[in-house]
Design a protein that fits this description.
Layout: E1 7-10, H1 64-73, E2 106-112, H2 118-136, E3 140-147, H3 152-165, E4 170-173, H4 178-189, E5 195-198, E6 209-213, H5 217-230, E7 236-241, H6 247-263, E8 266-271, H7 276-289, E9 294-297, H8 303-313, E10 319-320, H9 326-335
Parallel strand pairs: 1-6, 2-3, 2-4, 4-5, 5-6, 7-8, 7-9, 9-10
Length: 336
Amino acid sequence: MRRRTKVAAVTGAAALLLLTACTTDPTVTPPSESSPAATSEPAPEPEDSDEPGGEAPANEWFDQALFDTQYAQRSVTPEGPADQPYLQHIDAELVDTSQYASEGAKKVCFANASISNPWRQTGWITMNQQLKVLQEAGVISEMETRDAQDNDDTQIADIDYFIAEGGCDVFIISPNSTAAMTPAVERACETGKPVVVFDRGVQTDCPVTFIHPIGGFAWGIDTAEFLIEHLEPGSKVVALRILPGVDVLEQRWAAAEKLFAEAGIEAEDHFTGADPVKIKSIISDALARGEVHGIWMDAGDGAVAALEAFEDAGVDYPVITGEDELSFLRKWKETG
C-alpha cells in the first residue's frame, strides 16, 4: 500500500531529529504513478536547444508529480513557530491525534535503525536532549531504545519485543529499510497505540505520524542544478551513490539523472557502499579513461575521498556536491 503522508516535510534544523541513514533494501517497491499533485507551479519543461541533451533513461523510481511537488516546495515558506524550526512543516497534512491524549508521563519505545554515521549520531544526541526536556515537563517517563545496527532482522525483532514485552505507550520507529519494516510497523499499529515513523517511510499509512524531509527529489534537483550551472553541455559527471533500493536515495538520483540528460551532461553512476577505498577506485578508473568534470553524490560522506582521488592523480578538483559534514567543510576550508 502506498503510504499517506501525515506530515509532508520538515526543514533545516528539524532535520537534526531525523536520524537519516541508508541501508540496502532490494525489495523496496518503487513509487506508483499516483503521487500528490504539486501545490505550486510545477517544474519548468526543458527549453529546446541545439546542445547535446535529451530524455533521461527510464527510471522506475521517477515520479513526475512528486518531482514537481518537491521542486515547488523548495521555495515554500515553512509554517510553524519561527523560534522552533523543529516544529515547522511544509504543506503538511495535519491529523487530529486527540484520541491518544491521556494523563501522566508515558513510556516511549524507540526502534532505531542505527547510529552508524556522524549525522545519525548528531540526531541521537539531539533526541536525547529533547527527551530530558520532556521528562522534566512530565510528558515522558522514559524512552527505551533498541539499535538495529543497520540490520533488518534485528529491527524486526526489536519492534516485536516492544510490542510483546516493552510496556510501551507510544512507538517511535526510524526504519532500517522500507519494505522489510512494513509488516513490523503494521503490527505495532495493531496495538492501538500511537506509532510515529520518521526518516524513511514504510509501505503503509497506518502510523499516526510520518515525518520526513523533502530531501528526495528536492536534493537531486538542487545538486544537479548546481553542477549544470557550473558545467558545459557534454561535460562528464561521475555520480556516487551509496546503496540501491532506498526510496530517498533513489529519488535523488532519479531527479538528477533527468536534469543531467536534459542539460546534455554525460553522467555515469556507481554504488559505493560509502566505502572511501571504493570511491577512490571508481574515480581513479574514471580519470584513467578521460577527464572528469563533475562529481555528484546522493550523500556527502564520501566527498573527501572523491577529492583525494583527484589529488592522487595530480589533476584539478572537479565541480562537486557535498554536505554539511565536518570532514568536507574542513577540506573546503583547507583547500579554498
